[in-house]
Amino acid sequence: MYAIIATGGKQYKVSEGDIITIEKLGKEAGEKVTFDQVLAVSDNGIKVGSDVANASVEASVVKEGRGKKVIVYKYKRKTGYHKKNGHRQAFTQVKIEKINEFLGFECLGHAGYAEEGEDIVCAGISALVINTVNSLGLYTKDAFSTDSDEETGKISLSFSSPAGHDADLLMKSLVLGLQGIQNTYGNDYIILKFREV
To answer: 172: pLDDT confidence band, cut at 50, 70 and 90?
Structure first.
C-alpha cells in the first residue's frame, strides 16, 4: 500500500516505514505529524479525488537539518562585478508510520458507570454514536450499512468504500467526542481501540 502526499509544494510517494526528506516543518525529533493533503492511495487499485478526501498519513519526525551547500555565483563581464554566496536548504526527515482511511466503527457493551437507565457515560456514548449515524445518512452521500443489538449494546457501521470528505469530518468529530468522554471518566468506563483493516 502506498499514498501520494503533498507538502511544502512538492509531492511524495510514501509507504509505511519509509523515511523521506521534506521541506522544513519546524518540529522536533520524535514529534508526530499528520499529512491531510493526500492525492492518491493505492491498495489493490488506485483511489483519487473524493475517494481519498478522508485519507491521512501519520509520520514521526526523525530529525531536522540543512542540506549540502550550494554555491550561487554571479558575474558580469568587463565590470569587475562578481558575487559568491552559499545556501544550505533546511529540511525535515520523517518516518511514515501509518496511512489512514475510515472504513467504519463498532461500539460494544455498556459502560457500567451507574445503574442501567442512569448511566451518563453510556448515554453520552450512545448519543454521539446515534447522532453520527443519523448525520452520515442525512448530510453525506457515502453508502454504509449499520447493525445493532440492544441486549449487548452493539452498534456498528461499515462504509461500502472509504469515507468521503464530509463523512470523514463526522467520523473525526465522533472520535473527538469519545476521547473527551474517555479523558473525563477514565479507561474504566470507555476503551477506544483503533485497528487497521
So the answer is: confident
- Distances in Å between the alpha carbon of 102 and those of 62, 105, 162? 27, 8, 6
3-state class (DSSP) for residue 70: strand
Cα 20-24-29 angle, rounded to 5 deg: 70
Identify the residue whose cell numbers are 451507574: 114
User: Of 52, 58, 145, which is closest to residue 99 (Cα–Cα)?
Assistant: 58
CA pair distance 132, 28, nearest whole angstrom: 36
Q: How confident is the model over 35-89, as pLDDT tens digits?
A: 888 898 887 778 888 777 667 888 999 999 999 999 999 999 999 999 999 999 9
DSSP run (H or E) holding 87: strand 81-87
Nearest residue to 50 via CA among 168, 172, 165: 165
**What is the structure's pLDDT at 171?**
84
Cα gap 140→45, rounded to integer Å: 24
The model's pTM is 0.56
Report DSSP letters for 104-142, one per residue: EEEE-S---SSSTT--HHHHHHHHHHHHHHHHHHHH---
